[in-house]
Model the fold of this input.
Amino acid sequence: MAQKVISIRPESLMPGARAPRYDGGQLADTLGRPMRDLRISVTDRCNFRCVYCMPREVFDADYKFLPHAALLSFEEIVRLAGVFVGLGVKKIRLTGGEPLLRKDLATLVGMLAPLGADLTLTTNGATLVKHARALKDAGLNRITVSLDSLDEATFRAMNDADFPVARVLEGIAAAADAGFAPIKINMVVKRGANDHQIVDAARHWRTDGRGRGHILRFIEYMDVGSTNGWRMDDVIPSAEVLRRIAAVFALEQAEANYGGEVAERWRYRDGAGEIGVISSVTRAFCRDCSRMRLSTEGSLFTCLFARQGHDLKALLRGGASDDDLRDRIAAVWRLRDDRYSEIRTAQTEEMRAQQRKVEMSYIGG
Ligand code: SF4
Done:
């Protein structure tokens, strides 16, 4: 279902208006943040119905997903990605929906690899066992797998797709065999759903666990989109996650790998690897947020919690030059002032009912 794109905005960004010529200067938004990361959603479809992202009661059999013609083609994605890299983007993450549902994704990876950006992918791992080798050979650098529980019943309840954990674990093992280690494992923690498995998950993914030392990251349950029925009461703060693990395995905080890294790193004192926490609700990280998002059908979103986007497809298919595209993207970024997680309060909760936010499955997590 197409998301709303038109809204009140500076004249130069109105559809059809000419964006100011980009002067080649340092590209920073209104909070001084550079544009370093691009998340590209290559499909709005998914084979899971995770309750915090695509609840089945909304994304049911009658839900109208985007027709293929509405999606950006691989050539259009690569062209735009080239413009973004020219504007300073260093990392490109392929997302969805579930990106591995997009046919021939390894071909797209092969087309993007020559741009020289750090190429990564986030997947639910359902079909990873089939694709891991081809993705690696095509030039993908890193993989993140979403896995909310190792317990069969809990996993099926959270992905609401009756899909076995074992198949995802096989996918992770295949990706490791293909050379993608360490793999990041994302676990969204929701109170009463899977928080009772925090320590078990930590134990599994330690280097001395059966998980072979991949990096488990605990993600605070977020009010993404407008359909997951989010309540603050269902959030397990990262501080509590760390407390529970530290009660069993001693932890120490580790340096960030780079500025703007989303996950806070914690190392096991006994050397058995590390974990991460992603705390959008209780420890907002908007100050360093350098992420731009490109939706499946070619709209720019400057925040995961955005309410509207900026259409690039009309320009792209309207004969715009790369300079025109660059000017538009630069103008959008320079006017960016998003910091939703910093201002999230009960008030934003009320607003939520009035003004729909874009669905995470449409722009990628
Ligand atoms: S809430 Fe928006 S601005 Fe803040 S970190 Fe998330 S995506 Fe960035």
Summary: The domain at 29-153+167-363 is CATH 3.20.20.70 (TIM Barrel). The chain has a mean pLDDT of 92. The chain has twelve helices and twelve strands.
